[in-house]
Structures are given as structure tokens and as C-alpha cells.
Amino acid sequence: MGIGLFFTGTDTGVGKTFVAASLAAYLRERGYRVGVMKPVETGCGEMNGTLIASDALSLKAASGSAEPIERICPYRFSEPLAPSIAAERAAQKIDVDHLLATYGEIAAESDVTLVEGAGGLMVPLLPSYTFADFARVLKLPLVVIAANRLGVINHLLLTVEHASCKGLIMLGYVLNRISNDTSLAAETNREVLSGLTGVPCLGELPFSEAAAPRNHLPVDLFEKEFDLRIIEPVLSTK
């Protein structure tokens, strides 16, 4: 079984899929067998009576995974809600043991398995079981994605503190420009955060129009902007 990484965010819509898919594409090009998993996706659109998990499909495409989408994303819901609530409203039950077993099966066939949560660490999979609990059980180190905008300092520091309380290992965080709007906050956030936390910044990813058709950064741009030195010790276990 290879190693795994867990991608979480400081909020919803901060670019978790974008960053995870970018790393998946990079690792794939480097010759790694990349497994991906999105345990639960909510807010899925529908096509011909089938719920479409767009985030999971982006991860699958970027990684080149041969796994069927039903294994990459075992639970899919139409309403854009926290998984526990979406499942309840759909009269379904999320089986965490099934998710853990599925991860093990994917990881057994992969050098690196990238797992993307929904929203942030405290989003509930079950009424009393969060994504932080899921990452803790699997002993997956975290990569935190934060939208590089006003407000990110508080959001990121709260996420770091909660991860510490849960005993989670945090590899680092990524400041992601989710739009081409410029602001003084976005220009200064990285420097301010470096003095407030010992957690390293893995990169400050720019907004890129070139990424739009593929839903991830081009590999050469990702390699330039993402500090791969921090995760190389993890990847060296291949």
C-alpha cells in the first residue's frame, strides 16, 4: 500500500479539487500510480437520471485512475449540503466502514492516494463524525487549501488549531487565487501567516485561465509554484 494525503479546505469553494487535481496530474507525469478518492460529493448535477460528481471526475481525469467513479466517489447527493444532512434528506446512510475499506482497496493499488474532503475539517460525514475524524482514522497527513483573500488568516489559523487538537499531521497549506481580482489582502496574506504559524506554505497558486479546460494547473506551472520539497520526503516512500 502506498502513502496517502488528505486535502481539506478552510471553507467550501476554495479550490480543493483544483489543487488536488494539479498534484495528481504532476505525480502521474512523474510516473506515480495515483489513486484518488472523494468519499462524498454533494451538490451533484443530474444527467439522464444519474448524479454527476464533477469534482470526483476531475480527480479521475487528472490522475488517470482506472477506478470506476462509483468507487472514487461512493456517495453522491444532489443537494449542496453537508454530507450528513444531504444523506438524511435523501433517506440514505453513509457507511464510514465502507469508505475506509474502499480507501484501503484503492491505496493498495496506488503509490500515492489523494483524498479530498468536502468543505472543511469539521464538516460532518455523520451527525457526530467529521472529516477530521476520517483523516485521523486513516492517519493521513493534511494539505489545507485556503482561498487567498480577505478573511483567510482567521480561517486558516482556526483550521490549523483544530487539526492540532485532533492530533492530525499537517504538511502545509496552499494559498489559492480563486479569481483574477487583486487585493492588498491577497498580496500580504502569505507574509502575515508566516509569522503566525509554524505550518509551512506549500505554495501561492495564481489564478490561471489556462487551467480552465483541464480543471487543474498545467504541470510545468504547478511545479514552479508548488513547493514540492516539503512533500518529497513523503513521496520518497514510493
The coarse overall form would be globular
**Termini separation (Å)?**
9 Å
- H and E order: EHEEEEHHEHHEEEHEHEHEHH
Point out poorly predicted stretches.
none
What oligomeric assembly is this protein in? single chain
Strand order of the largest sheet: 2-7-1-10-11-12
What is the CATH homologous superfamily assignment? P-loop containing nucleotide triphosphate hydrolases
Which CATH architecture? Answer: 3-Layer(aba) Sandwich
β-strand number? 12
Please, how many domains? 1
Strand content: 15-25%
* Major sheet characteristics: 6 strands, parallel
Rounded to an integer in angstroms, the radius of gyration calculated over CA atoms is 17 Å
> What is the average of the pLDDT values?
92
Helix content: 25-40%
CATH topology: Rossmann fold
Please, could you describe this protein's structure?
This protein has 238 residues and is α/β, with parallel strands linked by helices. It has helices spanning 16-29, 54-63, 69-72, 83-89, 96-108, 131-138, 152-165, 184-194, 219-225, 232-235, and strands at 3-9, 34-37, 40-41, 45-47, 50-52, 75-76, 112-116, 124-126, 129-130, 142-147, 170-176, 201-205. The strands form 4 sheets. It has a 6-stranded parallel sheet with strand order 2-7-1-10-11-12, with helices on both faces. A two-stranded parallel ribbon has the order 3-6. Helix 1 (16-29) packs parallel to helix 2 (54-63) and helix 1 packs across helix 9 (219-225). The mean pLDDT is 92.
